[in-house]
Amino acid sequence: MTAKNLYAYTLQPVNYEISEAEQRHAQMVIWRSTNKISTKAWMIMGAIVALAIVGIILLKNYSTIFCWVAIVGVALYLAIRIYGLEWYVKRKMNEFPAQEIKGVKLGVQPHGLVMRQQMGMQEGVGAIGWKDIYEWYNTPEFMLLNFKVKGQQGAYILPKRMDSRNFSFETIRKHLNESVGEAKKI
After folding, report:
1. Rounded CA gap, 22 and 143, in Å?
2. 14-18+100-179: which CATH topology?
């Protein structure tokens, strides 16, 4: 703790409100990180294109058609893999509406993240311990925490706009590095 930030934990929970657009954006960022074309696939495509170019140079007349077909095939594969698959995933995501999160407050404590939610006349309180979080991602726009409590999985998408004196991302990162390890790459 520094002189500027005397108490690194939450005294007053902060509002945790995430729009559908923020949820969709986080889902797409995570999906894009898993939809990478492998090095092996790039090498195979490179070899096919190289052989096709050599075939175009060395072969004459109608024999070069299969070389052009191979180049077009590689181009189609890349177009479908990069643009077509993303279009399909966006379409499927829109079939399942995301619910906007409102009325929830989060706080950072030495034992984990504390959630408060008004339920009728009572206030419900829940806690996600640092040991319950099994992986986390740190991006320029948000922090994603995946956790498992009592056999059920869940996730928190923490937009960087939430980083404040009452909800310190610095403290969250410190605890996550100690209990979970380094953030996974996206």
Report:
1. 12
2. PH-domain like (2.30.29)
